[in-house]
Amino acid sequence: MSEPPIASPDRVDPYGEFLASVRTRFESVTRGKQPPALFTTDTPALAEVYLDGLPATLRQEHACATCRSFFERHGGLVTLDEAGRTTSALWSAKHTPKPYVDAVAALAKAVEAAPITGVFLSSDEGWGTSPKGGWDHLALTPPKALRFPSDRTHSAAQTMAEKREDFRILSAALEDFPLAVVKQAAALLSTGGLYRSETCIGVANWLLGVHRSRQQAKVGAARERVVWRAVATAPPGFCHVRSTMIGTLLVDLAEGLAFATIKARFDAKLHPLQYQRPTAAPSQQNIERAEKIVAQLRSAGALERRFAKLDDIEALWRPAGSESASARPERVFSHLRAKPSQTPTTPPAGAPAVTMTWEKFAKTVVPTAARIDYWVPTANQYYLGLITAKNLDATPIIQWDSVGKRNPVTWYVYQNGSTPARWNLRAETHHAVTAITLAPSMWAGEGKHSHHGKKVIFVLEGARDLDYEKGAGFFPSFLKSDYHEIRATLEAYANAAVVEGKAEASACGLLLAEGSGNWRQSFRVTTHDGVTITYELDRWD
Fold it and tell me: What is the pLDDT of residue 485?
């Protein structure tokens, strides 16, 4: 077989222009896409489709073994939209030079009509080989965002195999749990009547979205492609519906059980989320695997944790005049409080609190607040501690932490809440709020890590876990997917490890979560104008 020649001025064949048009097409289709965005198709004879579409005078010299290999591995790649429509990642006749128009049009038609066979992942810096043997060939240099990281615990091929299994599992779940059942589950979770329902809302809404997109697809093939797209973009573990936290709920709803039974079974399943939850000891094989993975990812130092301080969090609000400790110059009289510049204006005695949602409070009240105080009830509340990495230069292990944007902060709460005294708080009095922040999983924006739910945290002055002894450094569900297979070992490690800096903790406080029922939490707000009003927050939105 001969090799295709390099385009030159004395040839009619604009081969170089054709190669450039393929690269341009790939760049335009994949620009801005995050992995995984490409899918493989069942198109085994693309090289023949290409040759048959060329003018007869060009076929023999384009019958190239190197380009044939490119067709076999990369020629069938497509992207998918939300409706399940395929778009060839490489082939479009629109900007193709004339001798190749028919061939490229035939390639695009064949690829876009073919069934999806999997998610495409590759760690290769170059796709195809060019130049080779003195000739230019079909080849691409994918952007870094489309290259599968080569330092992961599983290779690209292994992960592609896992995605194929995810497709099988998710397809089965969509048949086992019809749209009506998933709607019912999402509705129950949104009411807050189930224990820690906010941890499951993300999964339920995701599955509901897959069902609706699948229902809107017009033909069976499009429905299948919708599922492939969901598999490619799903957060870790979401496709394994039966083994997720809502698996029990969906099964019980499908079987038509009474609500009391459903609630009891769901609450029991969520019980292990208590911060020091009991667990069977990990196997020796799992421990050895954990040693290997942690060494491979160089993340041993990231397992050491400490209590967070105010400077470690991304605050939505701080009291007037406050600043981070790192930016604050040392002052002799910084411990003294200045006399207010004016007497606060308070409502008449007995005036009712203004009830509103967190979202309205955040938009209309927080921006003008100079000081916020929390009224501490006598009953148990979901007080929490924020935890961060002891070694900030260690490899990121938390899902929302990355080398480019560090955020190793996590949190813990006690099941059924805890008393104010445990957190160094006095009941039936006001405690100053020193910061308001969203859950660390939300610091990158609500669109990311939504499966961890929506939460707001009111950091309270002097709050710290007085009875803390060990554990709570992280939950395995917070870790990156690389660590999923060794979660038994990591859970045992986290339960036994001691988080440092309990006495210096300054980022502990009250956790309020979407979907957790009627909050009825009271806050006294003093504005910059000296007006004081009491607000009662009853829910997220």
Answer: 86
Helix, strand or coil for residue 181? helix
At 279, is the pLDDT very low, low, confident or very high (cuts 50, 70, 90)? low
Contact between 157 and 197 under an 8 Å Cβ cutoff? The reply is no
CA–CA separation, 187 and 175 (whole Å): 20
Using CA atoms, how far apart are residues 433 and 429, in angstroms rounded to an integer?
13
Alpha helices (runs of H) in 350-390, residue ranges in sequence order: 358-364
Strands 86-88 and 78-80 turn out to be antiparallel
* Cα separation, 247 vs 250, whole angstroms: 5
Under a CB-based contact definition with an 8 Å cutoff, are residues 431 and 510 in contact? no
> Where does 241-398 have alpha helices with state H?
247-254, 259-270, 284-297, 358-364
| SS3 (DSSP) at 232 | helix
The DSSP 8-state label assigned to residue 403 in this structure reads S
Looking at the chain, the number of H-run helices and the number of E-run strands are 14, 16
Nearest Cα residue to 316 out of 353, 389, 365: 365
* Burial label, 91 (beta-carbon count in 10 A; 0-12, 13-18, 19+): buried
What is the structure's pLDDT at 34? Answer: 64
Tell me the percentage of the chain whose pLDDT exceeds 90.
60
Distance of CA 480 to the CA centre of its chain: 10
Q: Looking at residue 278, what is its pLDDT? A: 43
Which residue type sits at 341?
S
CB atoms within 10 A of CB 25: 21
Rounded Cα distance, 414 and 425, in Å:
16
User: Residue 203 is encoded by which pair of tokens?
Assistant: 């999964």
User: If DSSP states are collapsed to H, E and C, what string results for 240-275?
Assistant: CHHHCCCHHHHHHHHCCCCHHHHHHHHHHHHHHHCC
CA–CA separation, 391 and 372 (whole Å): 33
Q: Two tokens at 323? A: 């600043």
Each residue's pLDDT tens digit, 366-404: 999 999 999 999 999 999 999 999 998 889 999 999 988
CA distance 404 to 297: 17
pLDDT tens digits for range 75-100: 999 999 988 899 999 999 988 998 99
Count of all residues that appear for the chain in the document: 541
User: How far is the C-alpha of 438 from the C-alpha of 310, rounded, in Å?
Assistant: 13
Print the SS3 string covering 102-147: HHHHHHHHHHHHCCEEEECCCCCCCEECCCECCECCCEECCCHHHC
Is residue 504 packed enough to be buried (19+ CB in 10 Å), middle (13-18) or exposed (0-12)? exposed
Strands 354-356 and 532-537: parallel
CB 223 within 8 A of CB 217: yes
The whole-model pTM stands at: 0.71
Distance CA 311, CA 459 (A): 12
The 8-class DSSP code of residue 305 comes to E
